[in-house]
Design a protein that fits this description.
The protein is mainly alpha-helical. It is built from three helices and no strands. The longest helix is centred in the N-terminal third of the chain and has 60 residues, at about 5-60.
Length: about 160
Amino acid sequence: MNPNLSESLSVIQVIQLILAPGVMINACGLLLLGISNKFTSVLNRIRALTEEKRKLMLNASQREFYPIENQRVESIARQVSDLLTRARLIRNAVFCYLLAVGLFVATSLCIGIDFFASILQLRYIILGAFLLGMIVVFIGVIFGVLDTMKGYNIVKFEVQVDE
């Protein structure tokens, strides 16, 4: 029997172990792609509302302020406040996903180092980094859920104001 066969099997196993966190890196990339689009939309909406408020205030300084304009300014102020909360939630989700990617990369690197160094304590670090990465992804998902709920409330408020 070839003595290198057992060594090549362990190399293949190590490569498979390194790929497990790689799958999570890919999953975090997909989550980041979706949440980044949301983040851009929320920031653009904040800018648009702020610009609308600025124009209303400029027009109001040149003439009498109509009650409907006053109502719109108040609506914009509340929406911007809520959108800033949303932006904070999305920022936190993005941070969690990026931190998780870092933890999964560290896990893969430690698995590779463990193959050559075979340090017992490193195995605890590997397991800890991977589990911490999973926990951080879960926290990011919670922030995403909170953002979705907040987004619905903002739209609901805007519709109610116009009724």
